[in-house]
Write a structure and sequence with these properties.
The complex is a heterodimer. Chain A is an alpha/beta fold. Chain A contains nine helices and 14 strands. A seven-stranded mixed beta sheet of chain A has the order 3-4-2-1-5-6-7, sandwiched between helices. A seven-stranded mixed beta sheet of chain A has the order 9-8-11-10-12-13-14, sandwiched between helices. In chain A, a hairpin with a 3-residue loop joins strand 8 and strand 9. In chain A, helix 6 packs parallel to helix 7 and helix 7 packs parallel to helix 8. The longest helix of chain A is centred in the middle third of the chain and has 14 residues. Chain A is globular, with a radius of gyration of 19 Å. In chain B, helix 5 crosses helix 6. Chain B is elongated. Chain B: InterPro entries: ATP-grasp (IPR011761), ATP-grasp_succ-CoA_synth-type (IPR013650), ATP_grasp_subdomain_1 (IPR013815), Succ-CoA_synthase_bsu_CS (IPR017866), SUCC_ACL_C (IPR005811), Succ_CoA_ligase-like_bsu (IPR005809), Succinyl-CoA_synth-like (IPR016102). Chain B: It holds the Pfam family ATP-grasp_2. Chain B: It comes from Propionibacterium cyclohexanicum. Chain B: Keywords: ATP-binding, Ligase, Magnesium, Metal-binding, Nucleotide-binding, Tricarboxylic acid cycle.
Chain lengths: 298, 425
């Protein structure tokens, strides 16, 4: 088993005819991910060639749901139209929406996050690299060739740090890696990913990557203390970040004494999480954890 | 983007929220003239800075004459409050205060909705109030889809314990503030104090508004609020080229892809520098994003090398979708565009097509470029290269590699293939 993205996932891409949408649709398809089509309003009836086949383009998400049984959508539309796109996917009953778009107005995302929560839609992002269950499915822009399937779950705000850890743990494999995104308001939190990994029988250990800003990591630490029995290894980026400056991600900002990397690391450690000082050390800690796990029954 | 008080009050006025009459002054003479124009027996001179605690710092003065106002402005206009230089003061009419309240509406990151706060005890430090007398601060969650409607505002006012006769007018004001929040794509609207005058009027006597940079595309007029004073020249240049650059003032220039990886790179470099003479620190944050073209890499190198404090540069790339050979070509072409590298550059490539990428850099054989395999080793190398003897210190005219520390281990210019983490302490 994996979390959220599995053998039954049927993926469409919203904004499939845009340059990023097309590029990543092809990458997902080439990696064997079950991408079945896409949506661009006004381009219904077109077909997009991908390695080995052609994908249908629909005018609406609802048409895509009816025609190809889509239950997962990856959103690549520009920020000004992201609100409409996500709301359309939620309204069409899509179960998993991955919003890759960066630069979405925060009020828009807070509205569509609320709508997704009300509808019971699992929304990941915005401003996220997506989710991958290696060798099963890939929804977003996470490279599929770094790591194979395994028993480690990973949740991170950052894309490149996710890739870095996937690379360092490539011999061990992962169940699912989720990039929840670096915006102030996101559809999926560290806590929701932790809860899903805790419930997933394939996942036996969890990597949690955080960064400055907000208090999501502190909340995750409290959740781990009370609800997570599987070993968790953590990493927090941004110790060097000055107060009041946004470090790339819209949500990565230290305000006063809150949101600092130091506080997050301390909270995680107090919850029994081993926290690496660098990505490499984090990978080494995870290696130690995996070695101490009981042998896999296969 | 935070607004100055006077800008926030302009937004409030545009949305028919009452604010004290005020005039912006950039010189003591203008402040004097402002006091005369206001014609009020009492005026208040308020430093315009994007930082809290102005009052405590002495940035607010109550004046009883135009001369006093001029003198106060003269003093305040030389102040620096929490690192912010005061470049203007707002001169406002004195108001006859009967009571001071607090109100704010903000995006609640943790709860993923909005939150409205209100207290009948305003004019105080709200964080202290929240900590010490949290029962005095009413908090009501606000649905992002419905906003602060009359019903929610009424709940907030009731919870804050306001007298019945005040409620109707307060609710009307709060709803209007909620409209400002939505209409302007704000992340925060805060009024402290919200004042009840002796004549029974409700006035926003102070205003703090933070707008969402992501939403500026639908608020073209708000770009006039963008304020470049005090922004470092290199940050302006980087922004013009679409680069995400924050100057930090250290010696090791940093270029990487992805915000998380770059933040992490700063940390690893800072840690490596702690044990070295002079403790070299990261000079900047610079995220070139995905799919770095040669031009983007050249722009990035140009910006980082323009910082006279930079003694070495660390380029840290993880090729996810981007292939490392493309990135390596980018670095080579960037060096051609920049010309001769004035300081040593340490490059760490990993991910997609990493071997091809490293081969391209080896073939280029630029003596100023050092290829190091792991992020931790590369960070240490870059920090070591930023250490220099005070007497023979690095200068822009020194030949490439001159900044190499005599303490650097022999043969360090091409790191051995140390396993990841092998040099961890």
């Amino acid at each position: 088993m994996t979390i959220w993205l599995n053998e039954d996932s049927r993926i469409i891409v919203q904004g499939i005819t845009g340059s990023e949408g097309t590029k990543h649709t092809r990458l997902m398809a080439a990696a064997g991910s079950p991408v079945l089509g896409g949506v661009t309003p006004g381009k219904g009836g077109h077909r997009l060639p991908v390695p080995g086949r052609e994908l249908p383009v629909f005018d609406t998400v609802r048409e895509a749901v009816e025609a190809v049984g889509a239950n997962t959508s990856v959103v690549f539309v520009p920020p000004a139209r992201t609100y409409q796109a996500v709301m359309e996917a939620v309204g069409a009953g899509i179960g998993l929406v991955v919003c890759v778009t960066e630069g979405v107005p925060v009020q828009d995302s807070s509205r569509f996050v609320e709508a997704a929560l009300d509808a019971g839609t699992r929304l990941i992002g915005p401003n996220c690299p997506g989710i991958i269950s290696p060798s099963v499915a890939n929804a977003g822009i996470i490279p599929a060739n770094i790591i194979g399937p395994g028993r480690i779950g990973l949740v991170s705000k950052s894309g490149t740090l996710t890739y870095q850890l996937m690379k360092e743990l490539s011999d061990l494999g992962m169940s699912t890696a989720v990039g929840i995104g670096g915006d102030p308001v996101v559809g999926t939190t560290h806590i929701e990913a932790l809860a899903a990994f805790e419930a997933d029988p394939q996942t036996e250990a969890i990597v949690l990557i955080g960064e400055i800003g907000g208090d999501a990591e502190e909340r995750a630490a409290a959740f781990i203390a009370d609800h997570v029995s599987k070993p968790v290894v953590g990493y927090v980026a941004g110790f060097t970040a000055p107060e009041g400056r946004t470090m790339g991600h819209a949500g990565a900002i230290v305000s006063g004494s809150s949101g600092t990397a130091r506080a997050k690391k301390a909270a995680l450690e107090a919850a029994g999480v081993r926290v690496g000082r660098t990505p490499s050390e984090t990978a080494r800690l995870m290696r130690e954890v995996v070695q101490s796990l009981p042998e896999q029954v296969s | 983007m935070d607004l100055y008080e006077y800008q926030a009050q302009e937004l409030f006025s545009a949305h028919h929220i009452a604010v004290p009459r005020g005039i912006l002054a950039r010189t003591p003479a203008q402040a004097r003239q402002a006091a005369v124009s206001l014609g009020s027996p009492v005026v208040v001179v308020k430093a315009q800075v994007k930082a809290g605690g102005r009052g405590k710092a002495g940035g607010i003065a109550v004046c009883h004459s135009a001369q006093e106002c001029e003198a106060a402005a003269e003093r305040i206009l030389t102040m620096t409050i929490k690192g912010h230089v005061v470049r203007a003061v707002l001169v406002v009419e004195g108001i006859d205060i009967a009571a001071e309240y607090y109100f704010s509406l903000l995006v609640d990151r943790a709860e993923r909705r909005w939150l409205a706060l209100c207290s009948a005890e305003g004019g105080v430090d709200i964080e202290t109030l929240a900590r010490e007398r949290s029962e005095a601060l009413a908090r009501v969650p606000v649905s992002p889809r419905s906003g602060l409607d009359a019903k929610t505002a009424a709940r907030l006012v009731r919870q804050a314990g306001f007298a019945d006769e005040l409620r109707e007018e307060l609710v009307a004001t709060l709803v209007k503030l909620g409209e400002v929040f939505v209409a302007e794509d704000a992340l925060l609207v805060e009024v402290n104090p919200l004042v009840l005058t002796r004549s029974g009027q409700i006035l926003a006597a102070d205003a703090k508004v933070s707008l969402d940079d992501n939403a500026l595309f639908r608020h073209r007029s708000n770009t006039v609020h963008r304020d470049d004073t005090g922004v470092h020249e290199l940050e302006l240049r980087a922004a013009q080229r679409g680069l995400n650059y924050v100057r930090l003032g250290g010696e090791v220039g940093i270029i990487g892809n992805g915000a998380g990886l770059v933040m992490s790179t700063l940390d690893v470099v800072a840690r490596a520098g702690e044990d070295l003479p002079g403790s070299p620190r990261p000079a900047n944050f610079l995220d070139i994003g995905g799919g770095a073209s040669a031009q983007v890499m050249a722009d990035a190198l140009d910006i980082v090398l323009s910082d006279p404090q930079v003694c070495s540069v660390f380029v840290n790339i993880f090729g996810g979708i981007t292939a490392c050979d493309e990135v390596a070509h980018g670095i080579v072409r960037a060096v051609e565009l920049v010309g001769k590298l004035p300081v040593p550059v340490v490059v760490r490539l990993d991910g997609n097509n990493v071997e091809q990428g490293r081969e391209i850099l080896r073939e280029a054989a630029d003596p100023a470029i050092t290829l190091v395999e792991t992020m931790d080793d590369a960070a240490r190398r870059a920090a070591e290269l930023a250490v220099h003897e005070p007497d023979t210190g690095w200068s822009p005219d020194a030949p490439a590699g001159a900044s190499q520390s005599p303490d650097a281990p022999a043969g360090a210019s091409q790191s051995q293939d140390a396993p990841a983490g092998a040099r961890e302490r």
